[in-house]
């Protein structure tokens, strides 16, 4: 990609997302290209303006109910990249991702419940989320679930 700046790539991805959203607004949407663009936009947006435009495009894409986009939008709100940092909105989008059966959202919420970050600590809820994500093939969640169970057994022995 020599000769093309990351800033230019972000502008192209943003334009592509906006085109995809506008051209499919009244029909069934193939969300794969929108998801891919949101994923790339998170990494290529370099200026504050690009971050804001990228976040706006991803939030608009979330209206298509792609669970993977919900996860990205949750991350945007959690980190404040392109939007005001807002834990409630981050949790909303991750919970929506869980409702739509996204294992990454399940894993993120599982970790939040396990640590008690932004919510009351609830290791049982964390286990449920990790178990659901693992059932969908998320190996990281399976490992986290195994570790959580192992830690509980060690605590009972002590």
From TrEMBL:
<dbReference type="InterPro" id="IPR052945">
    <property type="entry name" value="Mitotic_Regulator"/>
</dbReference>
<dbReference type="InterPro" id="IPR011990">
    <property type="entry name" value="TPR-like_helical_dom_sf"/>
</dbReference>
<protein>
    <submittedName>
        <fullName>Sel1 repeat family protein</fullName>
    </submittedName>
</protein>
<dbReference type="Pfam" id="PF08238">
    <property type="entry name" value="Sel1"/>
</dbReference>
<feature type="signal peptide">
    <location>
        <begin position="1"/>
        <end position="27"/>
    </location>
</feature>
<dbReference type="InterPro" id="IPR006597">
    <property type="entry name" value="Sel1-like"/>
</dbReference>
<keyword id="KW-0732">Signal</keyword>
